[in-house]
Specification:
Elements lengths: L2 E5 L2 E3 L5 E8 L7 E7 L6 E7 L6 E3 L7 E6 L4 E6 L8 E8 L5 H6 L7 E2 L3 E5 L2
Parallel strand pairs: 2-11
Antiparallel strand pairs: 1-3, 3-8, 4-5, 4-9, 5-6, 7-8, 9-10, 9-11
């Protein structure tokens, strides 16, 4: 069964750090674009950061996380990471990852419709609170 599984969420104090992982099983992340999305209570899901598996220098960050979050990938582990530093209470959300082959740019991937992507994870909760 092909799936994406997120991990690494949890409770952290403001200013703290977390690293999220998105691991694919049943298929190989090769020419996919991978995106991290988040949904806070009462808000729409938004694209946070996206990366090209074939060109890891091709990345996109939402303005709200630029300079604090870093996306990376490990092809050998079939995994994409989201390093989140200087976390703020407004970063509290469920974080999801998605993978798609029919992508044009990483920015378009992050601005696209999550539910339409080829593979989607179930999400991991991130809570930033003192």
């Amino acid at each position: 069964q092909s799936q994406l599984v997120e991990s690494g969420g949890g409770l952290v104090q403001p200013g703290g750090s977390l690293r999220l992982s998105c691991t694919a099983s049943g298929f190989t992340l090769s020419y996919h674009a991978i995106g991290w999305f988040r949904q806070a209570p009462g808000k729409e899901r938004e694209g946070v950061s996206c990366i090209s598996m074939s060109d890891p220098t091709s990345t996109y960050y939402a303005d709200s996380v630029k300079g604090r979050f870093t996306i990376s990938r490990d092809s050998a582990k079939n995994t994409v990471y989201l390093q989140m530093n200087s976390l703020k209470p407004e970063d509290t959300a469920i974080y999801y990852c998605a993978a798609d082959l029919a992508w044009t740019t990483v920015q378009a991937m992050c601005n696209g419709i999550f539910d339409e992507y080829d593979y989607r994870g179930q999400g991991t909760q991130v809570t930033v609170s003192s």
